[in-house]
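Figure 6 in text form: structure in, sequence out.
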């Protein structure tokens, strides 16, 4: 078995700065979204608010920029790898908090731990954004409804 050493993409200082700036911008966006989420009832309404925050991306046929970067982040400089990793962890934590509050309020099923459900919700969301690029461009909205139905104790 041949052991491969990590290969880093050589990117210009300008692209590195742009990548770091994008991560900082998205951190601020998530901070604002998190404030909004805490002003919404826990459970289904909070999760729907989170998912609706990505509806515009789905309508424009966009993928998640964070996860687009994450797919190649093993080739980035350590500094950019860390920034992308922190951003992805911030989002997972935000979802975990939504799931935990929903489970505590009794609106979400508690079959799985919040950590596990957060990864499932995040992965499903990012996959739905990517697949939504295919005609008839309705996968995102159907997936949002399926996630809510899957988690909601009232269904």
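Output sequence:
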């Amino acid at each position: 078995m041949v052991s491969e050493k990590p290969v880093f993409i050589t990117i210009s200082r300008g692209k590195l700065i742009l990548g770091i700036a994008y991560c900082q911008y998205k951190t601020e966006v998530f901070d604002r979204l998190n404030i909004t989420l805490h002003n919404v009832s826990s459970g289904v309404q909070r999760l729907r608010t989170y998912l609706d925050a990505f509806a515009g991306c789905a309508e424009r046929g966009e993928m998640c920029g964070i996860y687009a970067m994450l797919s190649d982040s093993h080739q980035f400089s350590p500094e950019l790898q860390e920034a992308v990793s922190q951003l992805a962890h911030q989002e997972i934590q935000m979802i975990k908090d939504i799931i935990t509050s929903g489970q505590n309020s009794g609106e979400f099923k508690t079959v799985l731990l919040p950590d596990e459900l957060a990864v499932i919700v995040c992965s499903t969301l990012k996959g739905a954004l990517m697949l939504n690029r295919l005609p008839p461009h309705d996968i995102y909205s159907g997936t949002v409804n399926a996630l809510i139905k899957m988690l909601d104790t009232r269904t």
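Caption detail: The chain has seven helices and no strands.
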